[in-house]
## 1
Amino acid sequence: MKDNFLSVDWGTSNFRLRLVEKSSLHVMKELVSSFGVKALYSEWQQHGGDRECIFLHFLKQQIEQLGVDIPADIEIVISGMASSNIGIRELPYASLPFNIDGKGLYVESIKHSLFPYGFQLISGVCSDSDVIRGEETQMIGLAGKEDLYRKSIFILPGTHSKHIVCENGKITRFTTFMTGELFQVLSTHSILKSSVEKPGPDFTDWEAFDDAVLTSRARPSILSSLFGIRTRDILNKKSSMENYYYLISCDKIVLCAGDNLYDFYKRAIQVLGFGDRAIEIDEKNVEASIIKGQLTLLKLNNVD
């Protein structure tokens, strides 16, 4: 098992465990659960006790469910919200600028008497107005040698979309947009729900979409301001909106595809006139970037 490690990607709403071959990054076994840190944190709030024990008991159960004999000395690395104030243990954020080689990121080696394995817990990165946990590890895996010499903006669509600016090998800025979450709330629970109808899979009104993109460019966006409500709670700072200007000044726009939002983001980039500077990373490589970033950090912290 020295040639393998356990990769844990633990988000707010989801959990993913992988047994990975180091040399090839091949996923040998995988288990996915909807028990993200939020669910386990709620369980701890209800029942009390040692919070770390609740999380590590769940992790131990998931490792056992892989159905593979896992030796006690296997390397385990955990990234995502597990290092937040609702996770296993809260770790301090690294600050900007942040090197995409992983140097300067806070990684804590942890052993617990009730958990049979040691593990590496990866912290996040904060700016004056925003925070990321998980995307910093993904960026270590996504960034290439060319990003050491250029300015790029990485677009990571999702429930809370992240736009991350990388300049000459360093993350210098990032902004969170509550795109997916806000869309879900407005389209299903607000007064707008009666005015919104989801089209069929074969219908896309690109003319209407293009018009909406151009309209949004002319108006200030509320999406990152809304996430600022959360970051103010964490950092006691106000949020800022500069993302459109990031797009104007960057050398490359890197669209990290992964789901059905990809076509819309690609179209928006073209409508805004940045298509000639855009490159796409496919779903397979986006998924692999988390594992690649985790392995880089294992090696960097002399755990290999």
## 2
Amino acid sequence: MQRQTKEYTIANSITPVAVTSSTDATPIVVTATSHGLATGDMVVIFGHTTNVAANGIFKVVKVNANSFQLTDRHSGASVAGSGAGAGASGVMAALPKILLTSDFRSASFSLHTAGSASMTLKVALSHGKLASDADANGDAPNFGATVADTNPYTYAAIVDLEDGSTVVEGDTGIVLAGTDVNKTYEVNTNLQKYLCIFPTAWTAGSYTIKMILSTDAQ
């Protein structure tokens, strides 16, 4: 059986934006200075504190150049705050492609930054939600949102192919610092169903990710 591969550009010159605050209201209104979004854009937010309902994947409604409302990515319904109070901190980025990887055994990806970069990216994998938690929109988890039995995903360890031996621990992620960084990594998808790579911290820079999925058949 011949090896089968698929190639994707899952992130193309994505520049994350620091999140300043959010309202604990319905809908949640997020403040992220000069966010550059338009109504209907899809984003992922990670690391927002207190008002944790603002973490995850959303479709946005632009309010102005510095703020936007969060709506459900499928239904478009307004997203309610967590009830714990106004939120702070975190990072927002245009949603990268979420790949269906269940037919593949491994993935290799190249990661490129433009200009001075300072950020952390993590590789998230999931078997998908339990059948009892899936809905008409499928069983894909809400990456970036709180991990739970109803929203299952984990961070994968990856191998830095520069030396072929350095293993990046999943919870640590890829910590990037420098100018015009170019790196290549490999991750064993281990028959996981979904894969997503997103920023968990950011200070400067943009990133591009190209990925090749392989069956590893010979």
## 3
Amino acid sequence: MIANGRHSETARQLVHMSMGAFALLLRWLAWWEAVLLALAALGFNLFVLPAIARGLYRPGDDRRRFHGIVLYPLSVLILLLCFPRRPDIVAAAWGILAIGDGIATIAGRAMDGPRWPWNREKTLAGSAAFVVAGGAAAVFLSWWCRPHQLMTPHLSLWVGAALLAAVVAALVETIPVRLDDNVSVAFSAALVLWLGSLVDSTLLHSAWSTAAGRLAIALVTNAIVAFAGYRARTVSVSGAVVGAMIGTLIFAASGWRGWLLLLITFVAASASSRLGLHRKTLLGIAEERGGRRGAGNAIANTGVAAVCALLTLVTPQSAFALLAFVTALAAGGSDTIASEIGKAWGRSTWSITSLQRVAPGTSGAMSMEGTVAGIAGALVLGIAGSLLGLVPAATVALVVAGATAGSLLESWLGATLEAPGILNNDMLNFINTASAAFVAVALARIV
């Protein structure tokens, strides 16, 4: 399959898949032994493999230090460092990366067929194969490597988390960015598996009863608001549909108080987009589609909050889940406020990486006016969350700290990774809200 050192994508994917067999060893290896082996694999792929298997390298890989063959063991190494006591999560994510991602490429090339509308390079057949093969690998490996001291979860929960991780990773793999699949697939799968590990199966029945009791009013309320948002030209059709789904989920999980905070956040973000619109239009930095939010924007800014709302029903740590929920919304809303105020009235805009002055609207750019407005926005949204009884007043400072940390991280990633197409704006917004929620909860555990 590899002749005269020429590249063979089939051979590359077969090797990619076969490396997943090493995940079986995590059942017997101590954590430090697994880390050492991952380090050895990383060194081998960096320094030895280029000399003995040139056919595994895609054209142009030799001009990049960090390409897929290097990022594969690096991703496994980072997973081991992130989950030192959960080899089952590492193994399942590894299985999705190795088997799911590998079979998707082979199946997509072999069967072709319909393609995803947002990425014409990815086929539906390839994604379906990804979910089936990757899900099966995740189910088996999570069972094979599950630590003995952990309580055995309900079968449907354990299988469901693995399959959901495969579905999410398959969808992430279709996002048209240059972020390597070995990174995006591995960590999106691990994130879903970790969230699944937080669920207490004994709470599922009561959670369903609570959510079902709110479902009817949630559906009606969000349908009305989505239609009104579309008529007001604040959302597109896709934004209205997906926003209604997320709003319904949040209402059903956290009640009217959580939903009202979502509405306040959306109104604040939409209003800030309209401020200084004339100047932003003249500079060519106004929001696309006249500021209408699409489906991607809805998921990026409120998807983390929706997950946190669900966790409030199914985890014993509901107080932390509520804190994460409020912080995720505050981060998404305050970041939009900071960006729009900065573009409208920022007098001096600088890059977070070089501290050099840059044009307004530049990826990763910051201004004093926008930064102050963003912090103020996070504070107001945090106070709103407290007044609604979602979080104690003492945690508002944690909400602001988390939202500010998420915004700074997003600005840095935007300045370094958005321009080359490694990340897009929606991915940056998702990272912002997720990191903000993580920081707030981490600080709450410390203090």
## 4
Amino acid sequence: MSRKVPLVDLRKGYLAHRNEIDSAIRRVLDSGWYILGPEVTAFESAFAKNCGAKEAIGVGNGTDAIVIALRALDIGEGDVVFTVSHTAVATVAAIEMTGAKPVLIDIDPKTYTIDPQKLETTVERFAGDGKPRAVIAVHLYGQPCDIDAISAICRKYDLNLIEDCAQAHGATYKGNHVGTYGAISTFSFYPTKNLGAFGDGGAIITHDPNLAERCRALRQYGWHKHYISDLAGMNSRLDEMHAAILNVRLQYLHEEIASRRNVAKIYNESLAEHVTIPSVRPDCEHAYHLYVIRSGNRDDLRAKLQASGIGCGIHYPQPIHLQNAYKHRIGLGFGGMEETELAATQILSLPMHGFLEKQDIDAIIDAVVG
């Protein structure tokens, strides 16, 4: 009988630190303080330090983190924000939630992140049309974007750089944690992330104390003073329970990412002759939120893996610019989306987390190669 291996195994992440997590949960329940209390304050401080940022602001989820980041920069109705079509729909949904217009850019086929050359061509096209305000650079799968090139474009055209780090906890670019290059950056703590809560959660980081103050107000009705709204804010607060769990899990983040990188190394050595393995940008450390291979026979390979009991996924099966909710009202940008559309037909995610056992890895490799 073949060994069954799920795409993710959240229970193993809990069991690895069960006593500490259970203790943290009991501490919160016993405290009687469940929203924006000492656990959130402690996590914000620890997470900012972990990332090398001056400020961190806990919020309700990763989508809200992007919305609040945009609004903190006064980006809204009629403004243009550039990002990719090959991403979780949350990136684009958040832009639209502010009233801004998403303009989508094709990807670099090797890294699946935004193509700086196509970005600049598109920015030039929109320079006299609308109000270009920002670029959201998505560090997809745990792979850092080409930050130097993107930053240069942002400086040239006076655009705000926002880093979407929802899948990149622990990834580095030239020795620094992703999220520390833009004006403001966002994270998700959805349970499957490298740093996951046991429900929804998110955070914003920045070096700018004024932006941090605006974000803290915006996450809670625009309050600087209790019950007095200075800004038109929203309700998006990281609760104490998730913060306490994240405080535990943050201590083991780098250890678990090292395990992910070791699994990726084994995959790379075993699969390189059979499929296209992930490409890692020079001077970067991939965080391997996902391990995404590429094959011209993707659908056949997927069916074979599923028949062997190996979990796999497609991240993402349909580019956002082709989805019914968006295809009639999103700017494609100059040159279309050839690489994005091709990638969607060939990519496949293999099981990847910090607790894969040798027998699991062997079974996955055998199923791909066999």
